[in-house]
Amino acid sequence: MPDRLKVIYLSEPHIDSKYVIEAVSARGHAITVYDPASPLGPQFVDVDVVIDSGGSVGTAEMLDAAPNVRLWQIQGSGIDHFPFAYWSERGVRVANCPGAASAPALAERAMMFTLMLMQRYPEAAANVRRGTMYVPRGRELDGKLLGLVGFGAAASAFARRATAFGMRVATVDIRDISDAESAEYQLHWRATPDRLDELIGMSDVLSLHLHLTSATHHILDERRMGLLRPGAYVINVSRGELIDEAALLRALQSGRVAGAGLDVVTEEPFRPDDPLLKLPNVVATPHTAGNTDGTLSRRAAFCADNVERIASGLEPNCLVTAPVLR
After folding, report:
1. What are the tens digits of pLDDT across the range 163-194?
2. Per residue in 6-51, pLDDT tens?
3. Through-space distance between the first and last CA atoms of the chain, rounded to whole angstroms
4. Domain encompassing residue 126
5. Is 287 assigned a catalytic role?
6. What ranges in 119-178 are assigned the alpha helix state H?
7. What is the CATH number of the domain that holds 279?
8. Does 259 lie in the same domain as 141?
9. Residues 268, 271, 315, 326: which is the catalytic one?
10. Single residue among 249, 265, 284 that ends a domain in this structure
């Protein structure tokens, strides 16, 4: 019979905590939500597992106050906001959630951006409000090439949706994509990252699906922006720092890039005076692509499963093994 563990949840205002509370409680474990207004020490002293919303709430002081913690579970996949090195130094195991938990939501947002940009939705919506009919003229997705930078769970989910609209899909990824996987996702072209420039040059829509690392920071810079074919679109539902936004702004203003769909930017929240937001060929959302009922349910279930694994003396899934993020 698994031990009954004590779990503390580090929530955020924009995250509905009921998903994690219900999932962990259903396994018979005691879970409380961290109260920043109460003394820190007593809340952590006998905690077995910490569930950290997004990895951006936990602090070294919290870890120091939790001498019995056996797992620090991040309720997300990216750890670029998490000081992993200190946890590693202390010998505390850290796990994140698999990308599959948020893949459907990220793929749907990327698909939405693609449709809005190709149909020039911001201009069309403005014309409706001012009574201008019959313009602008949109473009069809059928036959267009979607370039996916990275081919993990979210990118492959996007590929399925894009092919349903008749798009061709090409990708680069650090792993070898097998012939069977290529056939499953109807890939038109696949390669390793050393051929990223080729992918950029052939794409009608370029979508970034990468973790933020020292190697991927500004992976789409001014030089690579210049490789995009005229009329191409850029999609980013991953991390803002993947793109050199000053270069993107210039490319959008010059018409070199036809439009951009952004759920993330380098400086969040979006500044009201951000020049990107003033362009008619930009559609943006406030880092909400992964904030869906499905994502929250799947991540909560994964966190609860890892709590149960700790209680049963098993190794947790998705352990973070190296501080790969800058």
Report:
1. 999 999 999 999 999 999 999 999 999 999 99
2. 999 999 988 889 999 999 999 999 999 999 999 999 999 999 999 9
3. 41
4. 103-284
5. yes
6. 121-130, 153-164
7. 3.40.50.720
8. yes
9. 268
10. 284
